[in-house]
């Protein structure tokens, strides 16, 4: 996979525009996020390894394609990652799920881990890390550091919106991790928000301020 894939499908772009609009309600934002996550999941899993198995249709036996390897791992960066996770799990219901919680140390501004629970045998699974907003890239890089420490070797990162700064940071820290996103916006502002962006994804999906 390329290091960066921007999913330009009209349905993705249309839904993203609706999500960006500030008047979009929490209920609509959540529904759109679920819908868009299905379409993004389709892209991020496009090149999964395949094998075949022998089955019988009502007409005759056949050698039919099926996904190869261990169940994949979806890793949600708390809390906004959970909004993407729900939709993807509808498409990949047998996936194993992990969670990484990070907060930003007010002194050092570096991400500090407060929670990490990962599936077993990460070394044998494709891991898809999900977080709607790739902003500074600090939390994504830290989460992927944790996954690599747990043995994961095959990792992809899925987000809804990215900043050029975040993409660059990921490319420097984890050049082996392909990124799939619906758009790369212009820049980050001084508060670390993506511009023009869609605001705080967690607040918009959970109705907090
Ligand atoms: N996190 C968000 O939710 N929004 C941004 O714009 C940046 C980080």
Explain what you see.
The chain is of the alpha/beta class. It has a single domain (4-46, 70-206), classed as Rossmann fold (3-Layer(aba) Sandwich), CATH 3.40.50. 33% of the residues lie in helices and 29% in strands. It contains 6 helices and 14 strands. Strands 1-11-9-7-4-5-6 form a 7-stranded mixed β-sheet, with helices on both faces. The chain has a 3-stranded parallel β-sheet with strand order 8-10-12. Helix 1 runs antiparallel to helix 2 and helix 2 (26-44) packs across helix 3 (81-91). The longest helix has 19 residues, at 26-44. The protein is globular and about 60 Å long. The mean pLDDT is 95. Uracil binds at residues 80, 133, 135, 192-194, 197, 200-202.
Brief account:
This protein is α/β, with parallel strands linked by helices and 209 residues long. It contains six helices and 14 strands.
User: Ranges with pLDDT <50 over ≥5 residues?
Assistant: none
Q: Give the topology string: H per helix, E per strand.
A: EHHEEEHEEEEHEEHEEEEH
Most strands sheet: 7 strands, mixed
How would you sum up the global shape? globular
Number of helices: 6
Overall mean confidence score, pLDDT: 95
Strand order across the largest sheet: 1-11-9-7-4-5-6
What value does the Rg take, in angstroms?
A: 18 Å
CATH architectural category: 3-Layer(aba) Sandwich
Percent of residues in β-strands? 25-35%
What's the structural domain tally? 1
CATH class: Alpha Beta
What key phrases describe this protein's structure?
209 residues; alpha/beta; Rossmann fold; 7-stranded mixed β-sheet; 3-stranded parallel β-sheet; 6 helices; 14 strands; 33% helix; 29% strand; globular; binds uracil
């Amino acid at each position: 996979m390329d290091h960066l894939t921007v999913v330009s499908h009209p349905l993705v772009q249309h839904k993203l525009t609706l999500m960006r609009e500030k008047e979009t309600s929490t209920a609509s934002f959540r529904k759109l996020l679920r819908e868009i996550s299905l379409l993004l999941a389709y892209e991020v899993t496009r090149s999964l390894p395949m094998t075949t198995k022998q089955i019988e249709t009502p007409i005759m036996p056949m050698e039919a394609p099926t996904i190869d390897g261990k169940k994949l791992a979806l890793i949600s960066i708390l809390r906004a990652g959970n909004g993407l996770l729900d939709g993807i799990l509808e498409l990949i219901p047998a996936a194993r799920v992990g969670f990484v919680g990070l907060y930003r140390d007010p002194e050092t501004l570096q991400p500090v881990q407060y929670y990490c629970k990962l599936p077993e045998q990460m070394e044998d699974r494709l891991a898809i890390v999900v977080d709607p907003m790739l902003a500074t890239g600090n939390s994504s890089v830290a989460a992927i550091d944790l996954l690599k420490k747990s043995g994961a070797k095959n990792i992809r990162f899925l987000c809804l919106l990215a900043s050029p700064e975040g993409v660059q940071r990921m490319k420097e820290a984890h050049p082996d991790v392909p990124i799939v996103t619906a758009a790369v916006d212009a820049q980050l502002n001084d508060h670390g928000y993506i511009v023009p962006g869609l605001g705080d994804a967690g607040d918009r999906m959970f109705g907090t301020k």
